[in-house]
C-alpha cells in the first residue's frame, strides 16, 4: 500500500467511529462504544420527520457531516489525483456509512448522505477552482476580487 493513501484511510476510519458510536454527544467525552443489531429497519433510511433545522446541535452535526466528507474528498484526491473517481468513491462511502449506521442503533438517513455528498461536491468544486486559477493563493485573490466587485457601491448600514 502506498503511503499517500494513509491520511484518507485514517480520516475514513475516524468518520466510521464517529458515525457508528452509540451516541454522538458521548464522543465529546471520549466515550466510544458500539451497540450492534443484526436486523435493522431499512425503512429508517427514508425518515425525514426528524429534521430539526431549529436545533443548534442538529445544524452542528450536519455541518460536521459536510465538512468531514469534504475533508475526506480532499485527502483521497491527493492520493488518487482523478477528481471524478474520488467524487464517486467518497459519495459511495457516504451512502455506505448511512446504511451501516442502521446496524449500530444509529439513525442512518439518506438526507444525511445527501448532506455528506454536498460537502464532497463543495470540496470537488473548490479543488477544481484552485486548479483552474493555478494554485490556492491565486484562487483566493480571485475570489476576493469577485467579492469586492459584488459589494462595490454597497453602503454600510
UniProtKB/TrEMBL annotation:
Residues of the VanZ-like domain: 34-124
Pfam families: VanZ (PF04892)
InterPro entries found in the cross-reference section: VanZ-like
Transmembrane domains' residue ranges: 85-105
Domain of life: Bacteria
Record key words, sorted: Membrane, Transmembrane, Transmembrane helix
Protein name: VanZ-like domain-containing protein
Organism per entry: Planococcus plakortidis
Amino acid at each position: 500500500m502506498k503511503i499517500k493513501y494513509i491520511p484518507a484511510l485514517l480520516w475514513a476510519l475516524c468518520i466510521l467511529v464517529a458515525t457508528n458510536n452509540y451516541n454522538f454527544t458521548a464522543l465529546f467525552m471520549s466515550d466510544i462504544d458500539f451497540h450492534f443489531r443484526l436486523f435493522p429497519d431499512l425503512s429508517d433510511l427514508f425518515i425525514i420527520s426528524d429534521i430539526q433545522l431549529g436545533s443548534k446541535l442538529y445544524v452542528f452535526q450536519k455541518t460536521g457531516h459536510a465538512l468531514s466528507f469534504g475533508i475526506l474528498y480532499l485527502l483521497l484526491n491527493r492520493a488518487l489525483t482523478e477528481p471524478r473517481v474520488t467524487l464517486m468513491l467518497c459519495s459511495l462511502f457516504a451512502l455506505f456509512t448511512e446504511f451501516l449506521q442502521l446496524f449500530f442503533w444509529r439513525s442512518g438517513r439518506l438526507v444525511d448522505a445527501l448532506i455528506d455528498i454536498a460537502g464532497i461536491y463543495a470540496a470537488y468544486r473548490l479543488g477544481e477552482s484552485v486548479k483552474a486559477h493555478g494554485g490556492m493563493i491565486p484562487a483566493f485573490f480571485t475570489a476576493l476580487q469577485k467579492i469586492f466587485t459584488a459589494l462595490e457601491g454597497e453602503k454600510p448600514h
